[in-house]
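User: Predict the complex.
Assistant: Input components as received:
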Amino acid sequence: MKTFGKIYTAAVFVLLYTPILLLMLFSFNSSKNTVHFEGFTFKWYEELFHNDTLLHLLLNTIIIAVIASVVATVLGTMAAVGIHKMKKRMQNVILTITNVPMTNPDIVTGVSLALLFVFIGGVMKNNNVLGFWTLLIAHITFGLPYVILSVLPKIRQMDRNLMDAALDLGCTPMKAFFKVMLPEIMPGVFTGMTMVFTLSLDDFVISYFVYGSGFSTLPIEIYNYTKKPIPPSIYALFTVLFMVILALMVLMNVFQARDERKKSKKLAV
Amino acid sequence: MKRILAAILTLTLAFTLFAAIPSLPAKAEGETVTINVYNWGQYIGIGEEDTIDVNAEFTKRTGIQVNYTTYDSNETLLTKLETGGSSYDIIIPSDYMIERLIKKDMLEKLNFDNIPNYQYIDEQYKNTPYDPNNEYSVPYTYGTVGIIYNTKYVTKTVDSWNILWDEDYKDKILTFDNPRDLFAIAEFLLGIDVNTTSEADYQKCYDKLLEQKPLVQQYVMDQIFDAMINESAWIAPYYAGDFVTMHEDNPDLAFCYPKEGFNFFIDAICIPKGCEHKAEAEAYINFLCDPEISGQNMDAIGYATPIPEAKEYLSEEFANSEVVYFDEATAAKSKMFSDLPDETFQLMNDYWSKLKVEGSGYTLYIIIGAVIAAVIVAVVIMRVRKKKLYE
């Protein structure tokens, strides 16, 4: 049974990671062929870093992802604190409402947001509303529930008396939040933020409906590559992107592990 | 009271934000004008592999900035224009879509005084069926569909669409994954007009395509490149310009214009209604029609230029290709798509979906059925166990 478990785990990992490894491998292939590996080269990377169009779109995508994840995290954490203070029944109602956008098919969210933006644009007599701001609002909107969902359990886990103690000892509620509550729920806040960041980075369906003439992102551009096969410089781009995210994840884990060690040391003292 | 005040303040803030959006970019740019160009994906030179970066060159010469975004099909373009919310200055739809946009009154008439380079466009690409008086569009590229085959494996003479129905090449045939191009093949073969609106004609085409289905390896689009180059497929209908690209990678490939006829298309540059910088957009059109720019641009994307003077700026493979720049006898057999009524589009789409589901569908249904059955059984078993536990 133990060997079976190991084989099963290995199979899962192979299935999960072979496609990415293959893509990385072919980003170093000297020919455009995707079946035979013909020789090692860095030329696709060179081409990628000379391709202003792609780099510009990548920058757009990252700007949206960063701003959206920060704003969604702040709003989501605030919302989670508020929801926690509500009565049980109200909590359930609000949670159900905030979870709807998450379970709602992306395409419905996308179309309805586009309709709303165009309608507001019509009211403001602006026939060019779609662009950076609408993309940003849409990304914040679909990111919010994920933040609430990852922060709320952390608040519930917290010892209730901690906040009371802080207030008793003379903290203002604001100070108590930053000094006591925030450090406690930080892991949840972080998880929520990374979740929104990655979701925003690769979102296509919603972005597709709310992008406009002035601003577009990488996933939209790549979806439109229907005329010709995807050039290998895109593989190079994906490899770079994957590596950056991997590095971020590793770094996060290292920091978290260090934090926990510090905490347990403090407790021991 | 406090709450109501807060709500009102939030709302005003939200609305002022929205109102501020349009004025933001204008202030930041100062004097420079930015035009919004909306084009097919991978349909302009962007400076890859030492080719020309068309938009950067335009900005360098005129000082006009270009906001460049892309779409994947004519239908996406139409949807985006009809939804509203974004204004474009330049779009590049195909022939039949231009006809539709003109019918819907969604295009601006061009001022040809601003487009002197229009004189370079070859006469054959003027007075087209979609824009008979040359008022709304300027040709960007044109192209054709033919049969690409591998001479190593396909030894029979290829001169007809019939080769795609040949039993000897079972499972080595690829064909289009879009209804218009796919049905056109059957229509040419059966001698039916490609712009027919009769339901009986589509039934006939459907029967013919169904007959072909067991022989077809896959219905695909851009995967054709890899499959043909790697020789995992031997015959496929595709665009002539792309054949030249594939031929560079696999010299055994050959191209044929079927004797029954083939599709000929033009993608042309237009200015949609609601455009905010018409004069600058016309300057952009004029720039694209400059023979030097057109030549270098087409060299980058591999399609045919409607400007004869541009050919001297093309690489030899393209300039001398008889596949891309075919003779008049071949041209006589070509046929252009025109805009079909909505009902006909719907009819074609219905037959197409039916074709794709037919046959292969059953295994899928069986799998889905089995999964649902398994879930139901599992739920029932769990319930029974729970009940027993309580007892």
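The radius of gyration of chain A is 23 Å.
Let me know if you want any component modeled separately.
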